[in-house]
Amino acid sequence: MKPFTLLYFILSVLLYVAALPLLVYLSFKQKYKESIPSRFFLFNNSRFNSSDGIWFHVCSLGEARALKPILELLDDSDIKITTITHTGHSEAKKYGVEVRYLPYEMFLPFWAKKQKVLVVLEAEFWFMLFTVLKAKGAKIVLLNARISEKSAKKYLQMAWFYKKLLSHVEIVYAQSEADKNRFIAIGAKNIEVIGNIKLAGEIIKTKEYKKPNCEVLVAGSTHDGEEEMVLKSFVEYIKQGEAKLIVVPRHPERFDSVYELMKVYANRYDLSLDRFSNNQEFKADMILVDAMGELNNIYAISDIAILGGAFKDDVGGHNPLEPAHFGCKIITGKNFFHQKELFKYVHHVQYVEPDEIHRALLTSRVLPPSMLEQEINLRPVIKKILEV
Question: Which one in 3, 39, 185, 290 has a CA-CA gap of 20 to 30 Å to 365?
Fold first, then answer.
């Protein structure tokens, strides 16, 4: 083990020991009760069964979904997937391949098995993962790689570190020219711009619901604080005409708290409220979707999509391709820095401050539906990955 790698490993052990009480505490939280025991204590997280396959590492739900068109082109390959979050893990398991949580870095020298190729999506830059897999003979590929404008300064401040990390990488497939330039600035080599692979994914609905006989608004992938912004705007909006609001929180552990918030508004403004788990007829004025995997099905019966994750500055926005595909008129916040590349391909989107949602809803009446402009071809990329 090289001196810097040894030092990094020792620091990771010391950090682990220092964080141990917090990790034990968080293990009992609903959001982390599966991922933290698996990642930090290797509970139910055994090594892959075989070597010499193609290992994909993704973070969460969006990246796991983005793998679908890639895996369809790798039908006969031995595929493995690691994830960070519970939602990403659940999505990855749908592919019928070996799926694990990525262990904390100090475990990787003992846990990781050699594979032919390690394909890492977006910005999952783990030093020990890259170092260990490279030492075991794997080729490392960054796919859909990005460095957001917001985080670029932090990467530059640590350029010496990322240059070491990226020296293990065979090729970087960047989302945009701006991302390519940021990777060059921190020492990356062999960079090719291919666009965002999420443009290659097939967008489908899994169920058919009957659309209510009125305007339907969906607040999709919302985070803490965003539901109240939407509810305030909705109760003002329905003074001008009939409409229903369907709320789909991003994280399932928030279903109950969001329902309680919606109940406050329902009681205050004499509106009917229901949970999706009770029935799927969308008869109430407001409905909480307390189930996973339903958002596309809801977009398909909606007229306006208020896309969450961008009304505060700590998330970075969510994927606009799905609501655009189903012809929703998209309203979102201005903090969509993690999705900037995708929004380039979607037209007729309103980007507003939280207190401007009501005005945007009124404006949407005269706007055309949002629309998607472009797709990408992944076959040349897959061919190169297999040749690496």
Answer: 290
